[in-house]
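As noted in the main text, all predictions were made from sequence alone. Below is one such record, for DUF4097 family beta strand repeat protein.
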Amino acid sequence: MKPSKLILTFILTASSVALLRAQSNESPYLTKSLTSENIKNVNLETSGGSLLVAGGDTNPRIEVYVRGNNNKNLSKSEIESLLNEYYDLKVEASGGTLNAKAKTKKNMNNWKNSVSISFKAYVPKNVSTNLTTSGGSIRLSNLTGEQNFTTSGGSLHVSQLTGDIKGQTSGGSIQIEDSKDKIELATSGGSIRASGCEGTIELNTSGGSLNFSDLKGTIKAVTSGGSVQGTDISGELITHTSGGSINLDRISGSLDAATSAGSAHVNMLSVDKYVKVDVSSGHADIQLPGSKGLNLNLSAQKVNADNLTNFSGTKEKDRINGKLNGGGADVDVRVSSGNINLVVK
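Prediction:
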């Protein structure tokens, strides 16, 4: 990421955090009740604020928050004057759909007249969303349905979602908790944390670390610029990094892990179909279950494996190739520049 873009990303993210803190202690500029609307779809769009959608609320409504430039507190008359002159703000609900949109008019050419417009929607649980903001964070919770959300300058925080979940940010971190089914999340400028999730999960970051725990299903987690940390994963895990180490503990199932610039530490509780670990520059510490039949194919500058029992095959300084407990799932570990330390127990 270019320095100018990195600085802009930091400013936008810091601004959205400050805005969320400010909003927690202020009253909304506008509140619209949704009690009689039976909302099934929520479409929110703003260029300079944050978005929140929370499901399962007994008092369905949408709240609009407006703050001045640099989080300046404005009177209601000042807000109305600025909105009327420089913004198009529409909040409407009909046919089970909530639409809220805030955008600047063409005559907005002075940043001193800018305001931040944020939406908070409290709706039934069975709701699908389509959310877009250029300058703030997005929060989603307790929803079932199809969720699509994008921000260019803030973080994503989602929890207790079920369904088709797709989110992207160009300038912030991602956190997802207690969600399931189909999850696809990506960021160009932050880390990703995922916990308590299940299903088909895809996590991608170009500029941060990956940290995940208690995941079940088919999981693909890739980073171009950070480390990978994972615990209590079951199913199939594919994780690659171009710029950090990999630490995986209590993994059950199949694994494909690769790093171009770090070491790998892997503890397999059980092996399903395969284990593949590829390290370009570093060492690999691998722990495998001793009761499982495995086909071992390990190569490195030096392979340390002193406690192999019930093994048939070849053992050399730089490679091991053979069957453990009669053979079974394939275990392929390759280290280009470093050692492999294998423990079977």
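Residues 1-23 have pLDDT under 50 and may be disordered. Residues 3-23 form the longest helix (21 residues). These features were considered when defining construct boundaries for the mutagenesis experiments described in Section 2.9.
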